[in-house]
Amino acid sequence: MHILPTSPQVRVTLSYFVTFIAIGMCTGLLGPALPHLAEMTGSSMGQIGILFTARALGTMLGSVLSGALIDRFDGHRVLVAMLLLMAAGLFAVPFSPALMLLTAVMFLLGMAEVSVNAGGNTLLLWNHGPASPPWVSALHFCFGLGNMLAPLVVVAVLYLQLSFAWAFWLVALYAVVLSVPLLRHSSPRPPDDTASDRPDPPPHDGVRLAIFLAMFGLYVGLEITFAGWITAYGMLNGLAPGDAALMVTLFWLTLSAGRLLAIPLLRRLSPWKVLRGCLALGLFSALALHFLWLPLPLVALLFGLACSAIFPILFGLSHQLMTLNGRTTGWIFLASGTGGMTLPSLTGPLLERAGTGAFPLLLAALVGLLSLGLVALRARVRRSGH
């Protein structure tokens, strides 16, 4: 029994890791660069917010498109094409002085980002098969690492007294360079379910898929709701703007670290146990925020740790419990994008009507719904016996 994959598998996997750093950086650039983009287009902060909606819509389209492309064409060629599209979009951002033009570029960036994301996840699963959960956690750690590095790129560029455009151009150059190693490696293929030495494939189960899609949508909505509103929550509760902004940094810090921690943890514990632990910690963190058991910085750290392993473990479980191809992965990212766009947009009106006390209760409710989803999924698997 091989504990580690063979050398070709390692080289391909490392290519995916550095690719996910790139898409993490691309995703993370928008927030720090938003004031500069508003100034460039002559837009107010309220108007520039349309860029988030455009990126989300591009993500939803790319989720469906990428699944069909990965199933039909060579996976690495699809990733390279989307990386080059992403690089072209990043390069074009500083040359888009009109808000409508910049909105169109953001739409294309969202489509390219999620195509690389969904395609990379699918190919990693095909590359490692049943041993994929720790590798998926490492892959998503790289995405979080890219998110953390993006603001540093912007800070470094401004420190050197360069135009903010150089932040986009440097990430674009990095994306182009990544296309070279991907083209040199053979793309993984879907597992052959007819092979005699493979166990029977998971049954086709529409209810099981629906539970997974609901859980992915709930989780991404939970993550983006916390990251998007914790700064505003802190300011509404009396924190200085700088201290409040630090809360989201603490959240991303432990979310990324937790994904790294999950790699050895998943070699000792089942995915079900780790998920239950994450959800229990998330519920405790939300209640601690509501009842003021802990200071806000500690809650942000604990909630990031609670969220860290949920998405990669769910993705690994979906591979074990369903026949996962590019199309199914596309549906997963479509559900994720829908949750990420819908739930955070409902939080603002909720805070206006019910006050800041509704925020931790909303977080607790979302964690509770995820817990119910996990119970339903476990029961469905036991009922089918597979």
Structure overview:
By secondary structure, the chain is mostly helical. It is built from 14 helices and no strands. Helix 3 (50-72) packs antiparallel against helix 13 and helix 10 runs antiparallel to helix 12. The longest helix is centred in the first third of the chain and has 35 residues, at 7-41. It is globular, with a radius of gyration of 20 Å.
Topology (SSEs and partners):
Elements: H1 7-41, H2 45-48, H3 50-72, H4 75-92, H5 99-128, H6 133-159, H7 165-184, H8 206-236, H9 241-265, H10 271-291, H11 296-308, H12 310-321, H13 326-354, H14 358-384
Helix pairs in contact: 1-5, 1-6, 1-7, 3-5, 3-13, 4-5, 4-7, 5-6, 5-13, 6-9, 6-12, 8-9, 8-11, 8-12, 8-13, 8-14, 9-11, 10-11, 10-12, 10-14
What's the β-strand tally?
0
User: Roughly how many Å apart are the termini?
Assistant: 23 Å
The largest β sheet comes out as: none
Give the oligomer, counting copies of the same chain as homo and different chains as hetero. single chain
Overall, the morphology is: globular
Strand content: under 5%
Organism: Billgrantia ethanolica
Transmembrane segments: 12-34, 46-70, 77-95, 101-126, 138-160, 166-185, 206-232, 244-262, 274-293, 299-318, 330-351, 357-377
Keywords: Membrane, Transmembrane, Transmembrane helix
Protein name: MFS transporter
